[in-house]
Every structure is written in structure tokens, then in C-alpha cells.
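Can't paste images in this forum, so I'm doing it all in text. The chain is below; anyone willing to post the predicted C-alpha cells underneath?
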Amino acid sequence: MQVYLIATDSKFLLDAEILKITHKSTNCMTYVYEKNLEEILEEASYLSLFGETKYVLVKHANFFGKDKLSEKESKLLERYLEEPNLQTVLIFITYEPIDKRNKWVTLISQKYAFIQLEAPKNYALTGEIKKMMALYKVSDGAIKYLIEASLNNYDLICNEIQKFSLLFKPHEEITLAQMKDIVPSNVNDNLFKFTDAVLGRKMGETFKIYQDLLSVKTDVLQLFNLLLREFRLLYYYQILARKNYSKTQILEQLHLRDWQLDKIIRNASFNHLDDLRSYMLLLAKMDYQIKAGKVDKNMAFTSFLLEYFT
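Text version of the structure:
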């Protein structure tokens, strides 16, 4: 398959899908879409020097939803989709809602591959985490604590589960007390406070909590994922609010509880729609630079926070 469109709300599921598509190839190039489709399609059109398959990933390709391509970009994309480079696999990635009536969604769905990946929520989340933890002996209480301590966020839970293989052998018991040691409650309280401080534009409090989190060796990539999730929720809330959706409709659309939506509404006035989009793009760029080994993750995240508060 030469072209993929992946719509997702989970970085963990996305990473797993990319590994399947690319077969763990190192011949991958990653772009963040910023009205630069011409440059991306030029790269996709180039023949690989040694005839091997090249994978071109395009993150935040948001023109499959509410955003529109320019007339020039539309013509270029249409031409490429008619005759794609057989040595290139082009993968468009979006974290925003897909409009299935969109011309490009329809075309890629019919001719190529459209993949929708949704993180499990509520009862489905509990069931999935139990499956992932089946390698160990874990009580329902310990699993419940893990989910709640990770803010019911699938990606954060997966980050925590990855630690277990370093600490426990297969079929070994993980008690509630051990789970609390691995995922300490004070860190989770600080994660709540950290996101609230960032979204509420409280610079001093943000950096104080940030240093506390670093002192207990909190992985900065976890903070990246957490903030990206909060920015997305704020972004989607503002879009739905502009469409005059009721609170009940927004709760249903975003799969939130009342207290979570109340927090989003409280922070919405501090973060405008265009700014939120810029923050998400910047975090995506930094994530790529970190994984490419171009920047230190702690320095990158600190740089983001400083830019956010200026």
C-alpha cells in the first residue's frame, strides 16, 4: 500500500501501527504539516538511491477535517494520489476529528488505506489493561489504582506498564503496595497540579512542580504526552463550543466526566484556539527532534515551557 491515512487519539497505538507499516525500517522521514505539502510531496516523489522503500510520515495533517488545502496543494495532492511513487509509502497522521465526507478521506479510503485508532476508555480501558497485565499476577485493586493514578489515560498507563518488565518476572505477583511504589500517588497529584498550573498560566507554580517531578525522575516524555492530551481536549472543546454544542453533547463527544469538562472550561479563557494549535505543532516537532537524537528531552521541554509563558 502506497498511501495511508491514520487518525488517532493515542500516541502509543500510533507508534505500534507505524512499526507494523514500516517493518521497523530506518529509512523513514518525518514532517509536521505546516502548509508545506509541496515540499513533502516532492520528497515522496524522489526515487530512493538504492531502490529500497522509503517511508514519509506527515504529522498533524489536519486537512482531513475542518482545515482546507490551498488550490495549489489540492492539485498537487490529487496528482500524487493518481500516480504515487511506488518506492515510497506516504503516511498521513492526524489527531483531529476526521470528516468522512472530506474528498481526501473518501479518496484514500477507496483507493488506499484509512486506519482509525481510538484509545480504549471506561470499561474497555479496564479490560485492555487487564489483558496487558496478564503476564503477571495483579489484583483488581492494583489495576484500578494504576488506571486512576495514570489519569485514566491509555498512553500514560502504557508508559507505566513498560517499567514492569524491568522489575518483575513473568507470572510474578504485583501487589497494590508495590504498584503504589512504582506509580507513587504524590507524583500523580503533582501531575494534576502541573497541568493545571500550565493551562492556568501560572509560571512560577509550573516550574516549581516541574523541578519536583524531575527530582523523582519523572520521564519528561510523559509530561509531553500529558500536556499534548490536555491541549487537544481544550482545542476540541473550543471547536465544539463554537458550534453551540450543549455540555451533555460535549461530554459525549470527548468521553469526559463532568469534573474534567469543568476544568477544561475553566482553562479555556487562558488558551486561544490558534495558540493551542501552535503549541501542539511545536510539541510534535520537539518530539521528532528528541527521537531523532537532535535535542535533549529535558532541554526541549524546558524550552517549550519558556516559549509557552512568553
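The longest strand covers residues 88-94. The chain is about 60% helix and 10% strand.
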